[in-house]
Amino acid sequence: MEKLIGEFSVGLFFWQTLLFVAMLFILKKYAWKPILDAVNEREEGIKKALESAVQAKKEMASMNADNEKLLQEARSERDAMLKEAREIKAKLIGDAKDEAKSEADKIIIQAQAAIQSEKKAAIAEIKDQVASLSIDIAEKVIKQALSRDDQQQKLVKDLLDDTALN
Amino acid sequence: MQGKRLIHLLIGLYFSTTALTVYASDSKEGGQTPAERKVEVSAYVNHHNLDTHDFGLFSYTGSNGEHHQVGFPLPVILWADGLHVFSSGALHHGESVVASKGKYFVLDTHAYKIYETNAQGTLNYDQDHHVLNQAPLDFSITKSVFMIMVVGLLLILIFRSLAKSYATNQGLPVGVGRFFEPIVIFIRDDIAIPNIGAEKYQRYMPYLLTVFFFIWFLNLFGLTPLGVNVTGNIAVTSALAIITFLITNFTGTKDYWKHIFDPLGHGMPWSAKIPLYIILIPIEILGIFIKPFSLLIRLYANMQAGHIVLGSLIGLIYIFQNWLAGPLGLGLSFAISFIELLVALLQAYIFTMLSALYFGFASETHEHAVEHDGELQHL
After folding, report:
1. Looking at CA atoms only, how far is residue A41 from chain B in angstroms?
2. Cα B253 from chain centroid (whole Å)
3. ipTM of the assembly?
């Protein structure tokens, strides 16, 4: 302790205090204040830039959401339109089919009627021809068969037998 | 690869030079015993740590046995019934008596102090080898004062350029400022704000920054071979601690003083508090002085001890002068130098950190604010 007090130099203490305080004020005015201000300003700037970046990101996100919504709407509209078109198509096809079917039915009916009448006519003609042909045949047969007397008699006899059986 | 080769070269060089010095000293100082050399080294290390009136760079003993000191003189300013100013060169390292305005002064080389004397330069000693002569008030620009000025100028130069660089470089530092700016920000964000608080730290920043860089730079200068030991000087650390003390107590808030004179607060009736306060208040008042006192002793002792250890380890080489002590002394002092490099920064940090802590105590209004908040919440 005695050594410490012995080593204590009043002059050095005086100069140290004086120079240090002077240094403190000079540095405060010309160095620390501008440095800290600049650093603070820069940090504020960075903070603001970051905040605005976050803001921009949020806006981007909301814009994206809007876009998505629009897209969704467009998509559903398109779907609705497509559905409608499909329905119209189905209806058109159905209508056409019905119309075609009824037309075909009508044609078929007409055809059937025509066929029927044709058939009737043909049958009548066939009947006529068969009748005339039978008469012709009968005429020829009778002509040939009745040329001799025995044959005429046999025929009459057969005819009588048949009649008796009936 | 190149680095490795360089290390080999250095080691080789080191061994060859130590071998040479050992042989040389063997032939020259054959008569001196290790014990004598020990006394000489001890005195040298002690003197090395003292403040001197001139700036000595190195000294050597000439071929004729004469002791030469190389350096430059500094102004001596004394007050003894009038102002006496002369160059320290006139003192001739204690060999000459300086006459100024009818007074005679001589330098005592034992503690590097100037005493008033007569024309013959006689110094009277008591039985403990203390000088009995009258000592004038010494306001000389000593080596330490000179170094304080150098560091002051260096700080102003560095940080002025950093401050200016923001304007010219869109708010970004250039050059050496790029190294120092993060340290400034570290002091703000990790020393000032956590200890003092975000609202009040600003007014303490100039002192904290100045004291940190001042101590750090002087500590680093202390590690150069110039023999600067400013922060290991009790007068310097006292001045710093007194400034911390004054700032702490002059910026003390009502709460700070209340904490000292009424530490127990509202929670206890006065009748119970008074007997306790007979003991508590003196302790609190003592605490005001002990805090800065611990600052000054811590810095002084650490730096002084570092210098003594380094000096002694280097001194080992000269005391033993053999193959074992040479490399050992060099290796140890090399390792200790690295530790000292860390200590230089650490002591600056601790001084700044503790100053900030004391400022934090002084400017505290925290509890008060909490009480107010509580009241508001009740309403």
Report:
1. 8
2. 31
3. 0.81
